[in-house]
Input
Amino acid sequence: MGRGPSIEGRKNAADAQKAKKFTKFIREITIAARVGGGDPIANPRLRLAIDKALTANMTKDTIERALKRGTGEGATEQVVEIRYEGYGPGGVAVMVDCMTDNPTRTVADVRAAFSRNGGNLGTSGSVAFQFTKTGEIIFDIRETPALEEKIMEVALEAGADDVLSEDGFIDVLTSPDSYLGVKAAFEKAGLAPIDSDVVMRPATRAALDGEAAAQMNKLIARLEELDDVQDVHHNADLPA
Output
C-alpha cells in the first residue's frame, strides 16, 4: 500500500508556498513604495500591499525592509511591472501581472505556459477592457443566513458600491480606494469574510467544462507557479 507525503514533506511544501507568497508581497510593497512614496496614508496601493502582508502574518521588520528598498534606503533591484494579456481554452480572457528583472525571460515563460495549455498570448489591450479593478469582500452565510441583513447594513453604511447575494454567499463590491475602509468596518462589526482582495473583476464570465475546464485549470496553475507572476486574472466560470 502506498504512503502519502511525510509530515516533514508536507511542512516543507507549505513553507515553500509561504516563502513564494511572501516574495510576491515584498515585491509589491517595494514597487508601491517606489512609485507612490513610503507613506501608507498617502499611498493607497502601498496601504493595500501592507494590509495583505500583515493578513498573511508577515513580520513588520520584513515589511519595513521592503519599504526601505522601495524608497531607496536599502539594496535596490531593477524590477519592472509588466501585464501580459491573452486567451485561454474556449477563448477565455486572461491577464497576467508580473514583476521582473528580466522581461525577456518572463515573456518567454508566460508564452510557453499559454501555448502548452490550450491558449495563446495576445497583444496589449486585447482583453483588459473586459475587467474593472474592484474591491471584493466575500461572506459565506449558508449556515448563518440571518447575518445577511447585518452584512448589507454595514456594507452600505461603510460606502460599498454594491452587495450581491447568491446561493448562501454575499459578495460586497467596493471601489479600490474605499476597499480597506469597508473591510475595517466589517472587522469592527465582528463580521469575518472568507476572502477579500482588490481584484480585476470581469464584466462577463465564460462557462467552461470538461477538457476545456481541465486545461484552463492547468494554465492557471502553471502561470501561478512562475516566479515572476504576481497575479492571474481571468473570466472563466469553472466547475467547483
Notes: The longest strand covers residues 131-140. Residues 145 and 168 are 7 Å apart (CA to CA).
